[in-house]
Amino acid sequence: MLEESVIQRVLGTALRTGGEFAEIFVEDKRSSSARLDDGKIEELSSGRDRGAGIRVLVGETTGYAHTADLSEAGLRAAAEAAAAAARGNPGGERVVALTRVNAPAPNEVAIQPDTIEKSVKVGLLERADAAARAEGGAIKQVTARIGNSRRRILVANSDGHLAEDDQVKTLFAVQCVALGDTGMQTGYESVGHTIGWELFDRLSVEDHARKVARQALTKLNARPAPSGSMPVVIGSGGGGVLFHEACGHGLEADAIAKGASVFKGRKGEQVASPLVTLVDDGTWGEEWGCFAIDDEGTPAQRNVLIEDGILTDYMYDFLRSRKEGRALSGNGRRESYQHLPMVRMTNTYVLAGQEEPDEIVASTERGVYVKALGGGSVNTATGDFVFGMTEAYLIENGEITDPLREGNLIGNGPEVLTLIDAVGNDFAMGPPGTCGKDGQGVPVGDGVPTLRVQALTIGGTAA
Amino acid sequence: MSVDLDELLAIGDRVAGWARDGEQIEAVVVHSKDTEIRAYEGEVEQLSSAETQGVGIRVVRDQRVGFAYAGALDDDLLAETLADARDNAGFGTIDEFVGLAEPDGVALADLDLFRDELASFPTDKKVELAIALEKASRAADPRISVVESADYVDSTAEGAVVTSTGIRAAARETAAYVTASVLAADGDETQTGFGFSVGRGPSEIDIEVAAVDAATRATRMLGATKPPSARMTIVLDPWVSAMLLGIIASTLSGEAVLKGRSPFADRVGEQIGSDLLTLVDDPTNPLAFTATQTDGEGLATRRNALIEGGVLRGFLHNTYTARRLGTRSTGSAVRGFKSTPSAGARAVSLQPGNATQPELIASVGDGLLVQSVQGLHSGVNPVSGDFSTGAEGLRISGGEVGAPHREFTIASTLQKILHDVVAVGSDIEWLPMSAAGVSLVVNDVTVSGV
């Protein structure tokens, strides 16, 4: 994306005020989306974002500047701005010798989405709309969207590290509104992978749309969710966000370093039920949060965070691993060249256990079965977290019965982890997610087998 | 690269001037400069300086619309972006209501959103503010154990909207703020709090306010327990009611209405809430941090009454939603340069009542004061109206606030909450979001705890 000689000169400029470390991150991202709403192809949209961010470290200080001007003059101006922000003892010229790091791509992209005719996208959206509406007259509104992006990045730093990646993502999402006697209800589901247009070779847009329509229709008969604490069974695939919030964020080294995590100082301790093994894995094939290199140029890794309930490790970015003098974990990510990297999750999941999912439900006298979770959030310092349930049912006498209206669940991470008393053998990854932290969104994946939490507080209105 | 408003308008003029016969073009051109400084343990932890620019181009032809954007203003990208937008326009569904805004004669409000002081405020002084904020936050209470972040942020933003249909608008504004996140510790327990102070320029920032608010928020939660589950009367702090009002305003978007996604569609003229509720969206109010003279399509913003005495008065429209519903734009197009305009609120506020928060608390007798909420994005469905959110706050007993509670939810529906409001406080507070807050007393809310 840039000539190596230009990169060397820009890094040299960045180091001129005595920087101990300098890095350039170059990004060129093309995105496009096609949206059908209200029965119309409402909008096709294309976007281009390209630019570079330059970071200089001196002592505890990080200086950062970014620019959309990728000429050598533009890059050197940004390098000077970053260097001015992080000033050390001027040490004369330093020449950086670059070595290219070859990180394996997590998977092959068979069909670049930008080679697909726009009329093909329009056709898929129209088929989804028709299929959803055919599920019943109560389906009053359908939105369908295809999004694809190609993000090429280059990272080079004064340690001589140079790496590039080409990240292609494709997403399909449908939302339906159903109208009944008790008002409106919604259904929503998305499918997204770090692959190209071949997503649609294996995905039936009609089946997907019908599923979403049925979710909205089912909820028309939903009763208010219960209020108070009770057992919750989380369905396979739908509930990874529970771990993302309950402990994922608390295992990020930046929160640990500032004492803003309930998991600080607990490495080696039993922090979860022995049934829980939690992994964060940026290498995993086609999942939404995978890549060849993270946004600091580190090859993706598979990291075991909790093994049989024992906390084995935290997640790190360059800054935190450098400070602790330990190996990188491939978790340094950023939303775009306009952002500094931070410790972020990739694909976070709980490994399958031994139990039959049906048995887990059958052995629950009364509780809630959550088939799909929505978003969530956590306060890492207290461990308190919430997440929404977008599709849930009551469990009565060991059977899944009535659908429930939407609501939030609330819990405390360290408590909830110890209250997991059943883990099923039916692992599945869930839908693509966007994780927000400090104002930056990055793509992440999550997954779980069916599992049960003995007690969680359900934020419904029914007694 | 330095850009000024005339240059942004000139770029807009150039792009709009490329319109062919039978074609409408709209260019939204933006440029901003931002500085972000984070202090930690008496040092600068991060200092970022950034310049952002971009263009969003909408093309309307044969009753179809296409859009494209680019995060730079280079000539090659302008041409490429227009070509992409043109190509995209060939695939939209034919829709007779599609079209760009046209001048509607509404005059721009006289707003002064730009402070010259920012341009001459040196970086060293900004660093001093961030470090002073960290120090003040730590000093605000002996139980403050960590100042997780102490940030100074400022921005200068300029934007222009030019269309081939006669719109030519430009505006600029400055903003500066500080924000602190702290941890308070007592034995094994840790609680968190944040505080902020916002202005148009550095001289309008008050570091003490941010530091003390952060410390107060963190320390007041020490020793908090889960409350018992029950239906009760709650008092919403202005910080929380502002978020609730923002969600309610979103259900009154013309777009939600015409697409059948608003629970209040078809209810204009009906009583949808307590007669204590009068809600307006007024981006021309200089007290609003989100005030602006022009909307995302270049029309003048204006004051729009949404609810009067509990009766629904109308919705917020952009050009498209207005045309489809047979009315005029209310100057409510909202967008960034990377998207086409939707219709929405910018600065909603409730008409305040007469009672202070302590008076409201005394009148409630027993209940909960809700001071913060968590998970509004996941627990509120603005289509069905289902409302459920994590919360923290203080018990109210005997008309006074008492022990802190955390890890509970409050639940109802948006439709029911509007009817269950029994008092509006006098303490209106403009916050850095699309709504002002005011203490609100709401009956019959389900609290889920133990």
Task: Please count the beta strands of chain B (DSSP E, at least 2 residues each).
Answer: 20
* Helix content estimate of chain B: 10-25%
Based on CA inertia axes, which overall geometry of chain A fits? Answer: globular
Main sheet record of chain A? 7 strands, mixed
Task: Estimate the mean pLDDT confidence of chain B.
Answer: 96
What is the CA–CA distance across the termini of chain A? 61 Å
Count of DSSP-assigned helices of chain A: 10
Rg over C-alpha atoms of chain A, rounded to the nearest angstrom: 24 Å
Kindly report the oligomeric state of this protein. Answer: heterodimer
- Strand % of chain B is 35-45%
Assign the structural class of chain B, choosing from mainly alpha, mainly beta, alpha/beta, alpha+beta, or little secondary structure.
alpha+beta
Give the low-pLDDT segments of chain A. Answer: none
Features:
heterodimer; A: 463 residues; alpha+beta; seven-stranded mixed β-sheet; 20% helix; B: 450 residues; 20 strands; 22% helix; globular
Describe the structure in your own words.
Chain A is built from ten helices and 23 strands. In chain A, strands 1, 2, 3, 4, 5, 6 and 7 form a seven-stranded mixed β-sheet that branches. In chain A, strands 9, 10, 11, 14, 20, 21 and 22 form a seven-stranded mixed β-sheet that branches. With 463 residues, chain A is an alpha+beta fold. Chain B has ten helices and 20 strands. In chain B, helix 3 runs parallel beside helix 4. The interface between A and B is large, with 79 and 80 residues. Strand 2 (40-58) of chain A pairs parallel with strand 3 of chain B.
Short description:
The complex is a heterodimer of chains A (463) and B (450). Helix content of chain A is 20%, strand content 41%.
